[in-house]
Design a protein that fits this description.
By secondary structure, the chain is α/β, with parallel strands linked by helices. Helix content is 58%, strand content 8%. The strands form three sheets. A four-stranded parallel sheet has the order 1-7-2-5, sandwiched between helices. Helix 27 packs antiparallel against helix 29. The longest helix has 22 residues, at 338-359. The protein is elongated.
């Protein structure tokens, strides 16, 4: 089925006649699809043939000041214009919120019709204009806060007409249908721009008819089209004989043709009311902020969630280059059919994908025969589908047939993802040196470059930093922590000491995964409203966080202050550290929460362990703060006896953390010993924890381990807890408290297990199942050796053999052996199918060595 064979409604027939009438007034419409090589080539042909006075392009008219940057010879696509504006929600006069920043991208690649319109129009001395509403006029306060696209094509994807047409043509979606009908035309057909844009207009106009006028007005299309039409009218009024090429998304062309046709009898003049509204809308552009930034193929790819345009930009860049090569050959009288160029491109791209897969060291990476088979499959599919050479879908289908072994299941997902990445690409564009960008973007880029981060593309890379021994690496780490604190997603911490959480503190190296992407530049631009220097913005944010803490009043928390202190040190904001230490001193004295103080103490220990990493001034003496923390926490010990049942778990963890902190203190200062004070506080809790069995069990266990009570005292407490008439829930809670605080006691004091066994024997299945998860967790505290000792003790009590309690099977029948062999074969087969055989063999070799 071809577009000329489709029955057209009367409205479209009339629009085609109006188009013809407007062409006599030298108005030339180019209804395009964004980022389409076919549309770009027809735009190029149109401008070269018409040699217009004006080239008008869909895009906010507030972008016109950036056209010179787009035309600069140093600008290499993909690039984008990023727009920002602030809007206020004034719908509710009684609840007005703060202004909200909204951002959007207007991207260009080399084969974007808008890019070619600018470049070729400039070559023919045409005046170039963007004519769409300013971004401020388009944005809606209720829309998502995420960065948006100014080239949305959701209408085409959701059109009922296009969906039905795709089914009739045997295409999977609107992208495949577009390629089938437009992208795979011969170069001669693309050069004949009149017929090409006639067909693209029908495609887009029929999709537009699926939408009611009220819908188009509510989401802003109507207002944008009126603004674009006003631009055209203004030029035609001033220069009636001007030749104008109008490059817009095809979805809007129908409205522009109909609107301008209605103005023919008035010589395109704007009424006074229309002129007033037009001027008001243009003035909205004063609120727009716009910058030319680098962009990337992966961000451009529709498969990665981009809102408009063609998918697989790296592949279509090669398609564009092939078109330009064929064009150059024709100018040199070297006439070769389009089919030959497409076949050559297909073989080249399949070989490129295979080469990348081999470099990535995928199992059974495709060789020459696989590429040959994929090419044959792609060429045959193209012939079957009536294509002049293989297109994107033909090549992908050929690749899947030849490169993917078996079904496209989870085992093949990684390989298929890499193939799609080859079609998507990751090239990052360039903008001219000296281009006006927010200072924050320039600062971050130059610092990252000075630290030798690779910023030429958007591929993810890993940086390994020797943060303890190499000062330059520490400076890099602080820069990455600074960006992370400011929510700039340039790098992600993978491994290495995490001082905030206390994890992996024994590692010497940090590893970060990083990539400089357009999103990073966008985040930096958004942050620019806060200042012009990264450290200044971070410092202001810290000050704001300090201020918020100060305003909390009685709920001051020392652990929150020490987090601010560590963040300042991680980012290298050492000028703020003395003030934060003074604030911490004040908060420690005022903090009345046991858990907060203990958490603060542990973070101070992390700070002490990393003092060389942080370059902390010795005069600040972390040990003195730890002394204050422990004394204040001892003062708050009574809180353990005042909590309800729900607080037992958190108090229990804080109690064990306190013991750990006390035990660690002599390592920081050999002269410091807080153990006597700690056990004194535990003794003061005696008799006050009967309502909190988890804590009571822990306290008794800790006092016994510390030598503050003997076996007889602990045994008496255990017997009292498990005595007849006592609450079984309290007994279980007590046992779990002992096990989690000191699991070795279950071996040293067999009475614990005997009483527990007696208690459990009196319960029915339902009650046992309820407490089983807690018991399993308690016994999981045992080491393998303690587990073996426990099994031996239980076996003696039950008068059975210890080996009967194990899961080891020492005798096998012939049937068992055959079943084991069959199971082994299945496992081996699955390892091969899932590509894990090599990994398994390496792992086994490592164990044997």
């Amino acid at each position: 089925m071809s577009l000329p064979s489709i029955f057209l409604p009367e409205r479209l027939k009339s629009a085609l006649e109006q188009w013809q009438a407007l062409s006599s007034h030298q108005l030339y419409f180019a209804p395009i699809r964004h980022h389409s090589p076919a549309c770009s080539y027809s735009v190029l042909s149109l401008i070269e043939q018409v040699k217009p006075d004006y080239v008008l392009i869909e895009g906010p008219d507030s972008f016109n000041s950036l056209i010179s940057g787009l035309l600069n010879e140093e600008t290499k696509p993909p690039v984008a214009i990023m727009a920002q504006t602030e809007i206020k929600n004034e719908q509710d006069e009684h609840n007005k919120s703060d202004p909200v920043t909204r951002s959007a991208y207007f991207p260009f690649c080399e084969y974007s019709p808008e890019w070619q319109a600018l470049q070729v129009g400039h070559q023919h001395n045409a005046k170039l204009r963007f004519i769409d509403l300013p971004w401020t006029g388009q944005v809606n306060v209720d829309e998502s806060t995420e960065n948006q696209s100014l080239q949305k094509e959701r209408y085409l994807a959701h059109s009922l007409f296009i969906t039905q047409l795709a089914k009739k043509c045997g295409c999977r979606d609107h992208d495949e249908l577009w390629e089938h009908l437009f992208e795979l035309r011969t170069i001669e057909s693309l050069t004949h721009w009149q017929s090409f844009f006639h067909d693209s207009f029908i495609w887009c106009a029929l999709a537009r008819l699926d939408y009611e006028p009220e819908v188009l007005e509510s989401e802003g299309s109507t207002q944008r089209e009126i603004h674009m039409q006003s631009h055209i009218q203004a030029i035609k009024t001033q220069e009636p004989n001007a030749k104008i090429v109008i490059v817009t998304g095809g979805f809007h062309t129908l409205a522009l043709i109909e609107g301008l046709a209605n103005k023919l009898t008035e010589n395109f003049e704007l009424s006074s009311i229309e002129q007033k509204k037009f001027s008001q809308k243009q003035q909205l552009g004063e609120k727009d902020k716009a910058w030319l930034i680098r962009y990337s193929y992966d961000r451009l790819d529709a498969l990665n969630g981009y809102a408009s345009g063609m998918p697989s930009p790296a592949f279509y860049q090669c398609v564009w280059e092939s078109l330009l090569q064929q064009r150059a050959d024709q100018l040199n009288n070297k006439i070769i059919p389009t089919l030959n160029y497409r076949n050559q491109l297909g073989i080249h791209y399949l070989s490129k994908v295979a080469g990348i897969l081999r470099v990535k060291q995928f199992d059974a990476a495709p060789g020459f025969l696989s590429v040959k088979l994929a090419a044959e499959q792609s060429f045959r599919l193209a012939i079957f589908r009536g294509h002049t050479g293989p297109g994107r879908y033909d090549l992908l289908d050929g690749l899947q047939s030849a490169f993917i072994k078996g079904s496209l299941d989870e085992s093949q997902n990684e390989l298929w993802h890499e193939i799609q990445t080859c079609f998507s690409g990751f090239i990052l564009g360039q903008i001219p040196k000296g281009t006006i960008t927010p200072p924050l973007v320039a600062e971050a880029y130059e610092i990252a470059k000075s630290f030798r981060f690779k910023l030429e593309d958007t591929l993810s890379k890993v940086s390994r930093l020797d943060v303890y021994r190499n000062r330059q690496h520490r400076m890099r780490s602080r820069f990455l922590h600074l960006l992370a604190f400011l929510d700039i997603h340039f790098a992600k911490h993978i491994t290495g000491p995490n001082f905030l959480s206390g994890n992996q503190m024994d590692l010497l190296f940090e590893e970060w995964r990083y990539a400089w992407t357009p999103n990073v530049e966008g985040e930096l631009i958004a942050l620019s409203e806060k200042g012009t220097q990264l450290k200044a913005i971070a410092l202001n944010r810290l000050l704001e966080m300090e201020k918020n803490l100060e305003e909390q009043g009685i709920s001051r928390s020392s652990q929150n202050v020490v987090v601010l202190l560590m963040q300042a040190a991680l980012m290298g904001l050492h000028q703020r550290i003395p003030t934060l230490f003074m604030l911490l001193d004040r908060y420690i004295q005022q903090d009345a929460k046991f858990e907060s103080l203990i958490t603060c103490g542990h973070k101070l220990v992390h700070l002490w362990r990393g003092r060389s990493f942080f370059d902390i001034d010795e005069d600040l003496v972390i040990e003195q703060r730890l002394d204050k923390v422990l004394k204040q926490s001892f003062y708050c010990f009574d809180q353990l006896s005042q909590g309800d049942e729900q607080q037992q778990e958190s108090y229990f963890n804080a109690l064990l953390s306190c013991r750990e902190l006390v035990t660690f203190m002599p390592e920081i200062n050999p002269k410091s010993d807080y153990s006597s004070d700690f056990y004194h506080q535990l003794a003061r809790l005696d008799g006050k924890l009967n309502h909190a069995p988890l804590l009571k069990g822990a306290v008794d266990a800790l006092r016994f381990l510390g030598g503050k009570i003997d076996d007889s005292v602990l045994t008496t407490s255990i017997q009292r807890t498990f005595s007849a008439g006592s609450d079984p829930e309290i007994a279980i809670g007590y046992f779990i408290g002992v096990m989690r605080a000191a699991p070795e006691l279950v071996i040293r004091i067999p009475l614990l297990v005997e009483l527990l066994n007696q208690l459990l024997s009196e319960w029915d299945d339902e009650r046992f199942i309820q407490v089983l998860p807690d018991l399993r967790f308690a016994f999981s505290q045992l080491t393998p050796k303690q587990n073996a000792q426990m099994a031996q003790c239980i076996a003696q009590n039950l008068s059975i053999k210890t080996q009967d309690l194990t899961l080891h099977q020492t005798e096998f029948s012939e049937k068992n052996m055959l079943q084991a062999i069959q199971l082994e074969k299945k496992i081996q087969q699955q390892l091969v199918e899932q590509g894990l055989r090599g990994w398994f063999d390496n792992a086994m070799e490592g164990k044997s060595s």
